[in-house]
Amino acid sequence: MTQNERDRKICEDYWAYDNKGEFIRHIKSLCKQYNLSSYILFETIAECYACLDDVLCEYCGTACPVEVPADVLHMRSKISWSCTVCENALWREHKINK
Q1: Under a CB-based contact definition with an 8 Å cutoff, are residues 83 and 66 in contact?
Q2: Which of 50, 58, 52, 46 is nearest to 75 (CA)?
Q3: Is the distance from CB of 51 to CB of 66 less than 8 angstroms?
Q4: 89 compared with 3, residue with greater pLDDT
Q5: What three-state secondary structure class fits 63?
Q6: What is the tens place of the pLDDT at every residue in 40-91?
Q7: What CA–CA distance (Å, rounded) separates 49 from 95?
Q8: CA atoms in the 13 A half-sphere facing the CB of 8
Q9: Tens-digit pLDDT profile for residues 42-55
Q10: Degrees (nearest 5) of the Cα angle 34, 36, 38?
């Protein structure tokens, strides 16, 4: 992420959502805290992403990227996960071995 420190803090606070409250309330709170419209907030967070360091690709160990906070619980509930690079490599290997 190449944004300034304020934008980084906004992204950190956005991703700190704990899934225990209402997401809309969380967004409204961030807009108020940073004096932003929801449009500017989402424009800012579109420039960042998060990775789950406790969900790793079963082949290469890459941390799992998530695009929205709702994905966190979903990805953590999976038995296993593989990154796009490894999925493509497995697909190619399977295609070659057919």
Answers
A1: no
A2: 52
A3: yes
A4: 89
A5: strand
A6: 999 999 888 789 999 999 999 999 999 888 788 899 999 999 999 999 988 8
A7: 32
A8: 5
A9: 999 988 878 999 99
A10: 125
The enclosing H or E element of 80 equals none
Buried b / exposed e along 55-81 (16+ C-beta atoms within 10 A) = bbbeeeebebebeebeebeeeeeeeeb
Residue linked to tokens 């057919």: 98
The CA distances from residue 25 to 10, 29, 37, in Å, are 15, 6, 14
DSSP states of 6-59: HHHHHHHHHHT--SSS-HHHHHHHHHHHHT--HHHHHHHHTT--EEEEEEE-TT
Closest CA to 76 of 50, 46, 44, 42: 50
Total Cβ atoms within 10 A of residue 90:
12
Q: Give me the mean pLDDT over the 25-41 stretch.
A: 94
State pTM to two decimals: 0.69
